[in-house]
Amino acid sequence: MMKQAKTLLHLKLIDGVGDVSIKRLIDNFQDCTELNTLTVDEIANTTGLNTNTVLLILKGLADKSTEAKVEKILETLIKKQIQMIAGDSSLYPAQLKEIAQPPLLLFLWGNAELLKDEMLAVVGTRRPSHYGIYATQKIVSELIDYGFGVVSGLAKGIDSLAHQTALKNRGKTIAVLGCGIDIIYPSENRDLFRALVRDGLIVSEYPPGTAVHQAYFPLRNRIISGLSYGTLVVEASLKSGTLITAQAALDQSREVFAVPGPISSINSIGTNHLIKQGAKLVQSVDDILEEFTYLNLKSRSKEKERVRLTSKEELIYNVLVVEAADIDYLLNKTGLEFNEIYQYLLTMQLKGLVDKLPGGRYMLKA
After folding, report:
1. pLDDT score of 303
2. Average pLDDT, the chain
3. Which of 71, 204, 227, 357 is 20 to 30 A off residue 97, Cα-Cα?
4. Residue 126: closest CA among 136, 138, 117
5. Is 201 in a helix, a strand, or coil?
6. pLDDT of 228-248, one tens digit each?
7. Is the four-CA dihedral 292, 298, 299, 300 of positive or negative sign?
8. Which residue among 271, 295, 319 closes a domain?
9. Looking at the structure, do residues 7 and 53 belong to the same domain, yes or no?
10. Are strands 361-364 and 325-326 parallel, antiparallel or unpaired?
11. Which domain, by its residues, includes 343?
12. Could you tell me if 42 and 74 lie in one domain?
């Protein structure tokens, strides 16, 4: 564990001292050991910090209770096998160093080597439609096939689905938290969290035990986009927090992609707005890959045999691309007879194209 990381942890635990002040201090005094030999005015003049902030820092560094907190956190890190790194670590991702406010500290739980791989952020609404579920599973599985890893925020909905799809396809995935590295949020993602620690990577800029706070999530989003070559938004309302991640990607001069959606869906308002603002429309992984030709990504699977559909199967397929549907809905949309639809759905299930859901509805497989 780097000495600078331990110093940064101590500084971050001092109430009233923010990251900007800490960075100014560290930029001038690597490990803070020489501060005891300087006056408050000398430190203030060297760093540009005001004297009140300098006094807070000096008091915090000398405070035994803060030092005890540091030691307790370090014990937790060792016990749980969590890594703590600062910008001087070889593990600190180069992509993240390029953003305007890179985290001073990163806590890593799982396979830290994933930070060196090509990643794409995949984010979206917490309440996805069947169309959003289908699009996420399809595009993430294709990204994994081409060697891209997936970064997301472990939130309900699209984020969790992106992680799950990556793991299911034995791909690389990183979850960035807006709370302490060991806090499982939301709680229903307990199994997914454990799977990520085992087969992926959990990342946070907050030490173990840091409670969930709404203010942390927008800050978390800059890390999601910062670790990634680009950000794909699958579904989002116009006021969705997902759009904060897209804006962070734009601010970081990273690519922004969006899956178009039906004009009747509230989940499409945000993504369609992004497309109008210049985000690249994505219908398949090819729309993403053509922006990264310099990475020379190759499909890892053999050429898949294209499943051929009859003209009437195409009618059913085109309805299910938009949303899951029952036979009555398909009757109305396709103009086919009941027996025809039933037979074609059975055939499409055998071809591995369609799944039957509870309640008699059908949806496309990813």
Report:
1. 43
2. 93
3. 71
4. 136
5. strand
6. 999 999 999 988 889 999 999
7. negative
8. 295
9. yes
10. antiparallel
11. 311-364
12. yes
Tokens of 346: 């059975």
pLDDT at 99 over 90: yes
Q: Provide the pLDDT for residue 304.
A: 45
Whether 269 and 239 have beta carbons less than 8 Å apart is answered as no
The edge-to-edge listing of strands for the beta sheet with 105-110 is 83-86, 105-110, 201-204, 173-176, 149-152, 119-123, 230-233, 255-258, 280-281
H helices of 213-337, where?
216-226, 242-251, 269-276, 285-289, 311-322, 327-334
> Tokens 């890892």 map to which residue?
300
Task: Please check whether residues 243 and 354 belong to one and the same domain.
Answer: no
Structure tokens at 350: 């055998």
Task: Give the span between the Cα atoms of 105 and 87, in whole angstroms.
Answer: 7
Residue 98 has pLDDT above 70, yes or no: yes
- pLDDT tens for each residue of 70-79: 999 999 999 9
Do 33 and 145 lie in one domain? The reply is: no
Instruction: Please check whether residues 192 and 336 belong to one and the same domain.
Output: no
Same domain flag for 119 and 188:
yes
Give the integer Cα–Cα distance in Å for 174 and 272: 26
Which range, of 46-50, 287-291, 301-305, averages the lowest pLDDT?
301-305
Output the six-digit token pair for 191: 């199994």
Residue 282 shares a structural domain with residue 344: no
How many degrees, rounded to 5, is the angle at CA 137 between CA 136 and CA 141?
115
Q: How far is CA 185 from CA 96, 125, 153, 193, 213, in A?
A: 24, 16, 10, 9, 11
Q: What is the side-by-side order of every strand in the sheet holding 325-326?
A: 325-326, 361-364, 354-357
b/e 152-181 (16+ beta carbons within 10 angstroms → b): bbbbebbbbbbbbbbbebebbbbbbbbbbb
Domain-ending residue, one of 78, 101, 125: 78
Asked if residues 234 and 132 have their Cβ atoms less than 8 Å apart, the reply is yes
pLDDT greater than 50 at residue 333: yes
- Least reliable range by pLDDT among 6-10, 27-31, 202-206, 302-306: 302-306
φ, ψ (nearest 5 deg) of residue 85: -130, 150
Question: Does 126 fall in a domain?
Answer: yes
Distance from C-alpha of 268 to C-alpha of 252, rounded to nearest angstrom: 24
